[in-house]
């Protein structure tokens, strides 16, 4: 299937190119969205009639806030689109994976499975494709429900030096992917070039780990926001999306 280079088009006047803060530009976290699969565009707007809505979250320190960067490299000029699966079994045990220690960006970060949208198909299928590539789980036969929970704007690097431009700006779509099976009956085979560990963790326990409140020795390495004292931890966007979706 043909791969494509997705961008995110903000439904105001023109395509928004990487280097501006989406949240600041739209001036509200509650956004309307529309996916145009045939044109490879994900449109954003405010109070667009007939469009579904979702809240957009944001990094604590966005390097594009109050900035207008102009990147002349066409490979870096568009905001990219990604999907993320907050995958849980029937008992609300969530699957979280650790990025390989040899990865160029965010090594040893604990994250939910996901990746860039690359093909001309619906976003839910793209999300499940990424799950299967990274974990070996074929979700479709055991899928109970799938729901878009929240959007998250990510900019890398998270801190820019003088004269430095963002290398990647991504709009991440976080889905809840609920299975009708228990994790004991689900075989995981990780993609070893990108992932070097995984855990199934109950919802409440995972919230505690993200808040650095869980003192169990087996979870100390992953506790809190990345990077922690062990050079690991959970990615900020994944913490914010999970807490927004599941914290009581």
Question: How are the secondary structure elements laid out?
Answer:
Elements: E1 7-10, H1 22-26, E2 30-36, E3 41-45, E4 53-58, H2 74-77, E5 80-88, E6 93-99, E7 110-111, E8 114-116, H3 123-135, E9 143-156, E10 168-179, E11 195-202, H4 203-210, H5 236-246
Parallel strand pairs: 1-3, 4-9, 5-10
Antiparallel strand pairs: 2-3, 2-4, 5-8, 6-7, 6-11, 9-10
Keywords: Hydrolase, Manganese
Organism: Paramecium octaurelia
Pfam families: NUDIX
Structure, explained:
This protein has 248 residues and is of the alpha/beta class. Helices cover 17% and strands 31% of the residues. It has an eight-stranded mixed sheet with strand order 1-3-2-4-9-10-5-8, sandwiched between helices. A three-stranded antiparallel sheet has the order 7-6-11. The model has no long low-confidence stretch (mean pLDDT 89).
CA distance, first residue to last residue: 41 Å
Q: How are the strands of the largest sheet arranged?
A: 1-3-2-4-9-10-5-8
Globular, elongated, flat, extended or rod-shaped: what is the shape? globular
Overall strand count: 11
Helix/strand-derived category reads alpha/beta
Number of helices: 5
Helicity range of the residues? Answer: 10-25%
Give a short account of the largest sheet: 8 strands, mixed
Q: Hey, roughly how much beta strand do the residues contain? A: 25-35%
Mean pLDDT: 89
User: What Rg, in angstroms, do the CA atoms define?
Assistant: 18 Å
Poorly predicted parts:
none
* Helix-strand pattern: EHEEEHEEEEHEEEHH
Pfam family, one: NUDIX
Protein name: Nudix hydrolase domain-containing protein
Keywords: Hydrolase, Manganese
Family: Belongs to the Nudix hydrolase family.
